[in-house]
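Our working data are protein records whose layout never changes between entries. Getting from the letters to the tokens is the skill we practise here. To make this concrete, we reproduce a full record directly below:
***
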Amino acid sequence: MRVSLRWLSEYVELPDLAPAALAERLTLAGLEVEAIQELRAEGVRVGRVEAIEPHPRAENLRVCTVSLGNETYTTVCGAPNVAQGMLVPFALPGARLPQGLVEETHIRGVKSTGMILSREELGLEEKSPGIWELPPETPLGADLAEILELPDLVLDLKITSNRPDLLGVYGLAREFAALFRADLRELSLAFPEGLRRAEELTAVEVESGEDCPRYVARVIQGVSWRPSPLTLQARLLKAGLRPISLVVDLTNYVMLEVGHPLHAFDHARLGEGRIVVRRARRDESLRTLDGVERPLSPEILVIADAARPVALAGIMGGEETEVGEATRDVLLEAAAFAPARIRRGSRLLGLRTEASLRFERGLSPENVDLASRRFCALLAQNKGGTVAKGAVDVYLRRPERRTVVLRRARIPEFLGVAIPESEVAESLSRLGLGLKPRKDGWEAEIPFHRADLAREEDLLEELARLYGYDRIPELAPSVPPRVGRKAPEEEFADRVRRILAGLGFTEAYTFPLVPAAEGEVLLRNPMALGQEGLRKSLLPGLLGAVRENLSAQIPGGALFEVGKVFFVENGAAREEYRVGLVLFGRPDLPLSGKAPYGPAELKGAVEALLSALRVEDWRLGPCDDPRLHPFRRATILLGQEAAGVLGEVNPELLDLPGERRVLFAELRLPLLQAHARPAAYRPLPRFPASKRDLSLLAPEGLAEAEVRARILAEPLVESAFLYDRYQGPGIPQGSVSLTYELSFRHPEHTLSAEEVEEAVGRILGALAELGVRLRT
């Protein structure tokens, strides 16, 4: 925000500091000064163009005679808008301007004494289309520097998003008063009113109360289209705004002064002369003041009349109700809008303005009428019209009174320095806080314009700013350093990453944002098309990684990702860590042939992961996940809970270059973490093991895990290793051959052959219940 120190000095006495020292003090107090511009114009007077003649040697130049009242000068001018009778800024020979000295010279053989100036040459704007035509009431021959409040310093301040109260000169004056222990002068809000009441001339209806807690409408009659006083124009120019007319300029002036935007409507152009605050309807549109026809949606808040939208609430007015030369009566809008609604509308329309910048940060409804009254007071000072009696004030939701307790003992404890109580009270009072003494400190009533003050720490930070960070002694911390550690779920996720990397998998990182159709949890303010939701599975991202690899002609690979997924459970959004694995193409291993990855490799990887995590009580069960092949899929069960899925991705979902088979598994890490057992160490066995190979015939539809479970249920079986599965000639139809290597061991003695045979018999008896028999 650009702020003129001459304007600021109207409300508070400024410190006698060099510009660099002032900038440093403000920056230390949280008001970062990004740039300082010095404006100076010495020897510039108000002149009138008495005569214009063509230049004898240049078609685009003219020779002008300029009168200062008691002096006359001849100067050469190339501006296209110079005209006889105009009042203009005129720099005398020897005048000092931002670009340098003005000297008497000859231009194409014609003597030129002095110079007619534009705003650009005075340093008031970056680019001017022509010379500056001054208002007709400007005194001829007057020193223009005094009228324009020059010399002046303009500070370019970086205002943080939590301090909308500093987006106005008066709010900055309050801050200066607190920083430099100066008195803040009050704004003049008095103005005369006419005989007719505002309620007779207009009405206000607020349909969307949650979007507009307060709306104040005033009617001004008998306005005229004329330029603003030169001093007011100069203040607007220094702030970066271009003057237009008195009424329009005053709305901008009050916005810059008190930080609250206003808008003026041509009252005669409003349908039935009234205002309706509502959401836009489908298929409505509005041509805004910048001449752009903008389609609207129900997410955008508009100001409407009896028939149509006439303004984008808190953003920009409409062209049809713009104040112009024919305007005689004005409806002045002052309102408070919900920050989120204005921010949403601004983003949807791609339109950011000075008004939306302020409303997006949150403005108090309590300041609405102050801004409206300030406009009327300034209009009355400039004899710009008659203000109707009273106002139409629709106040639907008043902010609650807020108090924060500041304990005396917390000040040295928090800041590391003791601040005198009198200084504490004075500093906070100058910020507008009402202080009520307590035994242990103060109860501070927070003013409505300071929404950022919500707790005791906020008040302590304010004291630190005003006291001066440079006055707080620098002390080494007395708290011994502590080594931090990750949360248990993060440590478990890292453990899973290390295991899979050791198994030869490559980690992938994919984007969690997906199209709305692919997510259950949707974003309120998506940043881009196709990124409206959060992923509910790791599969889409991993398939994208597979697609990228295949497009780069990678023959195959094993990828994994550990990340969060988002879903809705019991009506609430939830997030959960998961691990996803994909196998595609052929293994990148020497002497492994060109055969592609198969389900056995995927199941083996899952088994290896669960084994490394020491998760034992798992099994495979039926699966109905439509993302997987209907005949090549399974659910991973831990007890009775589904811990994940594995299988071949449904070919109908694939759109991959030259590849139609991808294997995928996804497991829930919280469930794995709950079932993972800690490492347990046991001594090496003292007695040898006995090995037996067991070839079995099992029904084709029987899960191998059930066969293994029956085998391992035998107490003497230490391990069961499946090393062959066969189905073909020699095997009855509907059966499959499973061959295991069984390891038998007793912890207290060497097993005899008879004991092993008895154990095998018990195993075969248990398997017979499943329809499994010994293959002969």
The radius of gyration is 40 Å. DSSP finds 19 helices and 41 strands in the chain. The mean pLDDT is 93. The CA atoms of residues 344 and 552 lie 40 Å apart.
